[in-house]
Amino acid sequence: MIRLGRISYVNMAPVFYRLDAEVEEIQGVPTELNGRLLAGEVDVAPISSIEYARNADRLRLLPRLCVGSEGAVDSIQLVSRKPPEADHVPLGEDADAKLLIGDAALKSAFEDPTPHYDLGRLWLERTGLPMVFAVWACPEPLHAGLAELEDALVASVRLARAEPEQLAHEASDRYGYPAGFLARYFEKLRYRFGPRERAGLMTFLELARDAGELDEVPELRFVREAVVA
Q: For the chain, how far is it from start to end, CA to CA, in angstroms?
């Protein structure tokens, strides 16, 4: 049975909405899933784009899925008392800003009056491209059945898109957010890993290299080539 990682945030609701596959579901926050995937404890999981790039020599990607947005996403927020063009300081030191992701970012918009900067919106304004926050990665050697699992994940997303009200109500029951709020949030998320998303990812990785966060921009290696739906 494939060990499938699931980020424990509401953004995974469409992907797992009606997943028709026998899997062992392993939940965790992104940093946990990053580590467990690289340790070989998970067979496939959505992991942060930068961590994929740092370990691309031993990972492959599902070719049709990502987690991204084309514009504002709500769940990736820089909360800052100063404009975002500021110096970066090490984690744990006093700072004028903090980066929130996932459910913490969604809640902060309601609770904290400090200015919030949506990184999906800023990225689109500066590059004209979608932002890919996470890719679905698989460590080598690959587990059998990954292509069929990808088909099931894609089918779940499509059904979720076809039944937005039902998705929002079920996610509201599970995660506690108002259904109307979630319906608007899910409209902003993108899961299709198409040509524009791949261009956005490569632009991000090139900028990460230029900033010294990557030694080189890796080639994207896939479990299989995408099948035209």
A: 26
pTM confidence score: 0.86
- Tell me how far apart the alpha carbons of residues 13 and 166 are, in angstroms, rounded to a whole number: 11
The pLDDT tens digits for 6-53 are 999 999 999 999 999 999 999 999 999 999 999 999 999 999 999 999
Plot region of 122 (φ>0 → left; ψ -120 to 50 → alpha; else → beta): alpha
Q: 3-state secondary structure string, the chain?
A: CEEEEEECCHHHCCCCCCCCCCEEEEEECHHHHHHHHHCCCCCEEEEEHHHHHHCHHHEEEEEEEEEEECCCCCCEEEEECCCCCCCCCCCCCCCCEEEEEHHHHHHHHHHCCCCEEEHHHHHHHHHCCCEEEEEEEEECCCCCCHHHHHHHHHHHHHHHHHCHHHHHHHHHHHHCCCHHHHHHHHHHEEEECCHHHHHHHHHHHHHHHHCCCCCCCCCCCECCCCCCC
Nearest to 42 by CA among 1, 3, 73, 94: 3
Per the structure block, which two tokens stand in for 189?
Answer: 């998320």
Closest CA relative to residue 151, chosen from 134, 166, 136, 131: 136
d(CA 64, CA 80): 34
